[in-house]
Design goal:
Blueprint lengths: L2 H4 L13 E7 L6 E10 L3 E6 L8 E12 L3 E15 L1 E14 L1 H10 L1
């Protein structure tokens, strides 16, 4: 029996995946913060990522991850997520994901079609 999983409090298994993300945080009564980072691990319910600055805990966050696969082998895919910052320090942030959707990057697809 795996004892490490017995102590795990997360409801969903996180998978170690590293790919680029962009984020936008909307702290209350402050201008939005934007930045880039790299995912550490991800699940349907949460993710952690590396970033340069600590983000305000409790803030709403929008994330766009560059998914490592393409639709139809041509059109880039993005994983769009929203949620709330639950932990953050300079260098690392954890997010509780409230919604997620895998989307084709239509602008990139149109450029591809125009050049083909």
């Amino acid at each position: 029996m795996d004892r490490s999983r017995d102590n795990e409090r997360r409801k969903s298994t996180r998978y170690p995946l590293a790919f680029p993300i962009r984020y936008r945080v909307a702290p209350r009564h402050q201008p939005p913060l934007t930045g880039r980072g790299t995912t550490c691990d991800i699940s349907p319910a949460g993710l952690s990522f590396l970033c340069r600055e600590a983000l305000p805990v409790g803030s709403h966050i929008e994330l766009v991850a560059e998914w490592p696969a393409n639709a139809d082998g041509r059109c880039p895919l993005d994983l769009k997520m929203t949620g709330f910052v639950v932990r953050s320090s300079p260098g690392s942030t954890a997010v509780r994901v409230t919604s997620h959707k895998l989307c084709a990057d239509l602008a990139e697809a149109l450029l591809y079609r125009a050049s083909a």
